[in-house]
Amino acid sequence: MRSLYSGISKGTELVVHQAAVPPCIAEKMRAPHQEGSFPSPVKFGYLSVGVVEQGPDDWMGQTVFCLHPHQDRYVVPVSALTRVPDGVPPRRAVLTGTVETAVNALWEAGPRLGDRVAVIGAGLVGGMVATLLRTFPLARLQLVDLDPDRHDLADTLGVDFAHPDDALPDCDIVFHCSASEGGLERSLKLVGDEGDIIEMSWYADRKITIPLGEDFHARRLSIRASQVGAVARARRHRRTNADRLELAMSLLTDPVFDAFLTGASAFAELPGVVQDLAGGRLEALCHVIEYPATDDPLPEDHRTATTETAR
After folding, report:
1. Angle subtended at Cα 111 by Cα 108 and Cα 112, rounded to the nearest 5 degrees
2. Which of 81, 103, 253, 277 is the least buried, fewest Cβ under 10 Å from its Cβ?
3. pTM score above 0.85
4. Number of H helices, E strands in the chain
5. Where are the domains of the chain?
6. What family is this protein classified in (predicted)?
7. What are phi and psi of 153, to 5 degrees?
8. What integer pLDDT is reported at residue 11 of this predicted model?
């Protein structure tokens, strides 16, 4: 494989960069082609798009997606690849893994005709969930965030935006994607009686407190985790991980997903980009890493990027 682009999955990759993966979950949180062990050094990432340079004849020259770390060339089994169709630009295809996460959450929640739904957290994952939901026959859909600048993203996606204080209550489903204690607490306020909160945030080694002593018990609310490592239970016996990836890829024919590609840098700049993301000096939904053409090879010491070099 020769890489064309890779995407930085900001939430998870910064947890890894900051060595915040709890030891008790380290094995479960390994990326498919990760090298090294948490906390570090570790080669991490899972949003890679490239071209097959060596392999079976029917794969030669194909543009493909792979759940592989940031690296300019690598060798993987054909079974690890998902073809990028003609209708999906290679740069946009880096979003496949995140769309897959959103697909899994929708399978987990099972939204129904006429449901009232809120998505809390208008970042990459929350925005993806809202993007997929906008075509559902819902009674109401709101994308909720503290940052008023996210209103522009919601407008681009064609989704109603609300500040947490103004979000409408009595939701059948709330997708929580803000990775914040306040966001989860707000989810409990917005969901209706016997409603479902789909928790998509990973808090890593952070401890959070939520008010389960108020009306959580009396209103019979449910909080359910959704994590992309396994196909959602509702589809686990009907769909494979490969099926889910192919579905996610097919959805990326919609150009609205380009709204999530908010910046780009060369592969050689990756360590500095990660530092800037971690330090809050670079705002991004999905920052794209671009790889040099074959006639412009990188120096040997830049051929892979690890959290050790990024520190």
Report:
1. 140
2. 253
3. yes
4. 8, 14
5. 2-97+240-310, 105-233
6. Belongs to the zinc-containing alcohol dehydrogenase family.
7. -60, -45
8. 87
